[in-house]
Predict the 3D structure of the following.
Amino acid sequence: MKSLFLLLALWATLLGETTLKIATYNVENLFDLEKKGYKYKEYKPNTKSNWSQKTYKIKLQNIARVIKDIDADIIALEEIHSLIALKDLRKTLKKNGLYYQYYKIADKKNTAINVAFLSKIPFVYTKELTVTSTYKHRNILESKFKINGKDLYLFVNHWKAKSGPESQRIVSAKILRDRVSEIGYDKNIVLLGDFNSNYEEYKTFKKSRKHNDTNGKTGINHILRSLTQNQKAKDVEYEKKNFYNLWYDTDADNRYSYIFRGKKEAIDNILVSQPLLDKKDISYIDNSITNFNAKYLFKKKRIFRWQVSRARISKHKGKGYSDHLPVMAKFRVK
C-alpha cells in the first residue's frame, strides 16, 4: 500500500500537479493586550476579567495548535481584533513549526473584530471591500493569488450575526456579488468565512419572524446563487453565475461548524465558482470538504469554546479554543 501511495505521488509530480489546501476558522475573539482600540468589556486587558498576558498566551497557543494541525496553504480567519493579534498568532505558529510568510488583515474600519489571511503563497494583491460606511457591517477581504501561472481569487467574509435580520446579511452579499461580477464569473473564485448563514438558509430561516424580513430571500442562497446546485460535486451541472456550496459534497451528518443549543449548524461555508468544478487548471477535489473535528475541540457533546465565566464580572478561565470548528477543502492545481 505504501508503494502505491509513493507511485501516485510520483505520477502527480510528473504531471505537474500540486494539491492546495484552503481553510477557514472563526477563532472567537482574538484580542490583543493593547489599551487602544475598541474592545468588548471582558477583553479590556489587565482588569478583573483576567484578560492578561497569561490568558492571552494560552489563547494564542490553543488557536495555533488547531491551525498547525490543519496545516492549510491558505487559511482565512475571522474575529481577529488587530494586526498586532494577527502577528502574535503568526509568531506563535512559527515557534510551533508552521510558518506563514504572508498575512493580511482587513482593519481599515474600526470594528472590534476583523477578518484576515495567513498564507504560504504570496499575494498578487489584497484589498478591502467596504460593505457600508457604518460599523454595523465588517469589511470583506479580497485577495488574488497566482498559482502555477493560474489566477485564484479568495474572499473572506464575516457577515452580520443572527442577532439581526436577514436584510443585514444581504447587504454584505450584494457587495460581494457586485465585486465578483466585476472580476467575472469565469474566474477561479472562492468565497469563504463565517456567513452566519446555513448552506440552506432559505429553509432554516423561513418561519423566523426575527430573521425573515426579506420575504424569503437570503444572501447566501439567492444573492450568491447557491440555491439550485444541491448535489454532489461530481453531479453538478454548469450554471454560469452560480456558486456551489461545498457542504453538499459531504454527508449531511458532517455538515456543521457550530453547535447552538444542541443543534448542529453550518454557518461557516466555502463556496466556489463554476470553473473550480470543471477539472481543468485549478479544481476542487471531490469529497475533500470537511470540518476539523479533532477530539480535543469538544467537551462532551459541545464544542470546547474559549471559557469565560458568566458571573457579574466575566472572567477568563484560560481554557478552550473557539465556539466554531474550522472548515477546509482541497484543490488540485495542474
Q: What stands out?
A: The first helix runs from residue 2 to 14.
